[in-house]
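Please review this pair:
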Amino acid sequence: RDLKMTRRAGTVYADDYKLDRVRGDVRVANSTIHMDDVQADTLGGSATVKGTYKAPTDQRADVDLTVRLATVDISQAMETVDTFAKIVPVAKAAKGRVTFTSTGTATLGPDLAPALPSLMANGMVGSSSLRLQPDWLAAVSKALGGARLGGLALGPKGLDYAIEKGSLRMPDTPVKLGAVAAALSGRVGVVDETLDLALDLALPAKRLRAAGVLGDVLSAAKDGDSIPITVTIGGTYKK
């Protein structure tokens, strides 16, 4: 028989997760848990989950979920959600609040962590306060003659992404590097931890000429011109 529950709970603990004010409908049928907009307060913000969880064995479960995290604390999320730390380790030292949406499927192991090669998802990350300081940003600044590039901040439209076959891909995404407008795009290998990104920005010819970089590229440029630059970022998470 089907079992349907309307869930209301003050606090629920699930592994490392502390969920407050849990509410929503849960139905169990054919060895599958169906969640209908189950909501909870967690990670300094709120979460809403809709979809299915099916465990054919005690070693594996298949999920098909839409998850929305609203204004959660990024440092809490990175400390608590191992999958976030594996996919975007650059955010481990980040501060601020983010809103995150994801719709996708995955296979979970006995520890309930998704097998990253099985993860297929698309969604969006948005934040008006998040600041990232990726290691490669210092190298970009040095290559451009010490250009003053502040921490990387998302634009008002956020970042769209898709994860498939072990890779996270993002289209041209407006970002800010301090006062410098830029666009970031490319691929991140969530399984092999590789980077294949492009950073597009423009800097004043006068500043670049004074720094002694780009050489002949600047020969015909006027001091008031802005020089478009594409920086490619490769390697791995660690280097």
Observations:
- The CA atoms of residues 145 and 213 lie 6 Å apart.
- The longest helix spans residues 136-143.
- The mean pLDDT is 89.
